[in-house]
Amino acid sequence: MASAEPPLISVVVATHDRAARLRCCLDSLLRNGYPHFEVIVVDNAPSSDDTRQLIGRRYAGQVHYLREPVAGLARAHNAALPAVRGELCAFTDDDTLADPRWLAALAEAFGQDRRIGCVTGLILPAELQTPAQLALERLAGFSKGFAPLRWSLADPPADPLFPFTAGQFGSGANMAFRTSTLRRLGGFDPAMGTGTPARGGDDLLAFLRVLAAGYTLAYQPEALIWHHHRRAPEAVPAQAFGYGAGFGAFVAAALVQEPQLGAALLRRLPKGLGRAAQRASRYSDEVPQTPGLGLLELRGLAYGPVGYLRSRLQARRIGG
């Protein structure tokens, strides 16, 4: 008997003024061995026409181009949702390279259980050539290990902070959803993500909301993405602050978006803050060439809820 046709996967890549990097990403996606996919590029608040020209010149008929004039990663992802045709919707960033089996591995993970609403995958560094790249990998490497994992509220793990340990589930540079699930949840919170005062946390909130809605979240390390860490030394402190800010914004957004989890979140908050302080204290050993990173991350954590509030007010002013 013939096997069922693999599901159509819509790949969404948000980009901002990085046409050269985007070209490498798109070339890797179009070499993907998966037989049934489309690629949508969302040009987020561009300062030039470079990305549109690149798509029209090099990828006409292969890549769909959209433009989202308001800055914000979550807003860019949401702009793609009405155009998505796939049963599955995968997201990666413009500074990544997709492994040839990336989409096939995602599809296989979803095919194992209809209750799975989201799949994340392994992210490894594409290069480690500068001290800054080495520091970023030690500071906030995206790898979540090489063993498949699953999480659900119906079968919680032993971690007392679950399900608010959303950073353990995966990262936005390698995540996929059943399109129907993501649309049912209303997409991503437009007040979050890179390019907004919140600085990040949009992926973490989406993971939490998938679990809160009763779905299972799966981690599939065979779904591999290679990430280009930034090469310049100033990227390291910026990443430390941004990591803390994104997580702080996620906590604030969780209280707003999933109020039924509020009591559980507040009970876990002291232990969570203790774990964050413990993590920050290790930075002096892990990244000794850049002192003060732990304090920067804690400052970011304190700023995160303020950033989220500012971002929500900003979104209301512009009608988002």
Mean pLDDT: 92
> Helicity level, as a percent range?
40-55%
Q: What is the strand content?
A: 15-25%
End-to-end CA span = 49 Å
SS field, number of helical segments: 11
Radius of gyration, CA atoms, in whole angstroms: 19 Å
Overall geometry comes to globular
Largest sheet: 9 strands, mixed
Quickly give the structural class: alpha/beta
Return residue spans where pLDDT drops below 50 for at least 5 consecutive residues.
none
The H-and-E topology, N to C, reads as EHEHEHEEHEHEEHHEHHHH
Topology, number of strands: 9
What do you see in this structure?
There is one protein chain. This protein is of the alpha/beta class. The protein has a domain at 98-238. It has eleven helices and nine strands. Strands 1, 2, 3, 4, 5, 6, 7, 8 and 9 form a nine-stranded mixed beta sheet that branches. Strand 1 (9-15), helix 1 and strand 2 form a beta-alpha-beta unit. Helix 9 (262-281) packs antiparallel against helix 11 (293-317). The model has no long low-confidence stretch (mean pLDDT 92).
